[in-house]
Amino acid sequence: MRRTPKGFRCHIGLFGRRNVGKSSLLNAITRQQVSIVSDFAGTTTDPVEKPMELLPLGPVLFIDTAGIDDLSALGEKRMERTRQVFDRTDVGVIVTAAGDWSSFEEEILKELRRREVPAVVVLNKVDQLEPCAATIHRLSQENVRMVRTVAPDGIGILSFRQALLDSTPDDFINNPVIVSDLVGPGELAVLVIPIDNEAPKGRLILPQQQTIRDLLDADSYCLMVKERELRTALEGLSRPPRLVVTDSQAFLKVAADTPRAIPLTAFSILYARFKGDLLEQVRGTLAVENLGSGDRVLIAEACAHHPTGEDIGRVKIPRWLRQLTSGRLTVETVQGHDFPEDLSPYGLVVHCGACMWNRREMLSRILRCREQGVPISNYGLMIAYSLGIFERALKPFPGVLEAYQAARKEFYRNRHPKQVLPSVTGSRHQLSPTRERR
Ligand SMILES: Nc1nc2c(ncn2[C@@H]2O[C@H](COP(=O)(O)OP(=O)(O)OP(=O)(O)O)[C@@H](O)[C@H]2O)c(=O)[nH]1
Ligand code: SF4
Ligand SMILES: [Mg+2]
């Protein structure tokens, strides 16, 4: 169970003021001393994560946070870390000492609602004070789930657990799929997996493993080949595969070796759909056409790693962007949970596939971009666009392709009212092949 990747777990964030019993609640539900509990206000300083199995839901990740009412200089930094937790929260728990509901709790509830994240209110310390009847009445009128607890004594913990189960978004119950809706039972997918110096020793990377598992779960089957063996492998099949999926570094060769009648896409594009919002990121990719000298682009990677010489985020994508725009772009990179609050300086955000994350965190970033009018693309999409195989890579998703074609027509009509639409499958965008992997 512990090995379930973090990105698959429902993330449950515990928020509230200092000393209300957030850590006590975490310890009570996990029945372990996960977080330090004390009378001192401000005991929890950095988010504390605890994975556990919450049956019948399955694997979840609790995140205990620092109190949001710490107004000291250091407190501002702590609150920043707490705010980042909102980005990855699938279910938000507002812990309050009974009777203490105030503007702090209202702000948390407002923030969760803005993000459309279900909220559970825990009225803790009911042994000391009765919750305010007027607040309870108002919250119940607004259909907010509430439970009363005395965390250190385990009182109300079963109700808390039930409230969490009742609040869990459907996504976690009806597991979303990576590829199995495109490849039916008994059908074959060919997965192209380059094995070279950048491939990790002795294992496959997460998107490859998860795609294979998704196909097996759906009673489909798959054939894995390196890019050099693909042509021979396809020739040897008695019937064509339903889909070819490639690492986007091999996109160009794989596109050349795969007959056009066979649908083709990349792992990272499947992940733009699985973890993010494919249509939004497809539309965002078009914004590369608007970039010019002096514009700033933000490249965001969900996990930290040591960059290799030809690192995709630091070297390759910036190089292609500069070639595509023939301009002096300023390209900045961020990693992990650091993502600027203010995106207004950027003309485009290009994001990795976020395979390590839960979908909520990626959607939070997309939402932030949308609210600030900043387009967001994805590594695989940007690579396909650069190589002139964008539409082909989107063909397995007809609805998205259609919406993209309409957006593109509109884009060029506004931009060059009298010009013929340039071809994205032509040579204008043909750049060098790429590598995308960790
Ligand atoms: N009487 C009573 N005390 C409680 C209850 N829950 C927690 N406490 C006590 O309240 C104090 C603060 O509890 P914590 O769990 O550390 O509170 P917290 O919200 O994590 O606090 P910070 O990490 O400082 O933000 C501790 O002394 C707990 O033992 C409760 O239901 N009733
Ligand atoms: S940087 Fe790469 S490995 Fe890390 S989350 Fe993003 S896609 Fe996955
Ligand atoms: Mg605490």
Series of secondary-structure elements, N-terminal to C-terminal:
EHEEHEHEHEHHEHEHEHEHHEHEEHEHHH
- Which CATH architecture of the largest domain is right? 3-Layer(aba) Sandwich
Radius of gyration: 24 Å
In CATH, the homologous superfamily of the largest domain goes by the name: P-loop containing nucleotide triphosphate hydrolases
CATH topology of the largest domain: Rossmann fold
- Strand fraction equals 15-25%
Helix content: 25-40%
Provide mean pLDDT, rounded. Answer: 87
Question: Can you walk me through this structure?
Answer:
Helix content is 37%, strand content 17%. It has 438 residues and is of the alpha/beta class. It folds into 3 domains: 6-173, Rossmann fold (3-Layer(aba) Sandwich), CATH 3.40.50.300; 188-268, 3-Layer(aba) Sandwich (Rossmann fold), CATH 3.40.50.11420; 277-429, Rossmann fold (3-Layer(aba) Sandwich). It is globular. Mean pLDDT is 87; it is low at 420-438. It binds guanosine-5'-triphosphate, iron/sulfur cluster (SF4) and magnesium ion. Guanosine-5'-triphosphate (GTP) binds at residues 16, 18-24, 37-39, 41-44, 66-67, 124-125, 127-128, 150-152.
How would you summarize the topology of this molecule?
Layout: E1 10-16, H1 22-30, E2 48-54, E3 58-64, H2 73-87, E4 91-97, H3 103-114, E5 119-124, H4 133-141, E6 145-148, H5 157-167, H6 170-173, E7 188-192, H7 206-217, E8 221-225, H8 230-235, E9 243-246, H9 251-257, E10 264-266, H10 267-275, H11 278-285, E11 296-301, H12 312-325, E12 330-335, E13 346-351, H13 359-371, E14 376-378, H14 379-387, H15 390-394, H16 398-415
Helix pairs in contact: 11-16, 12-14
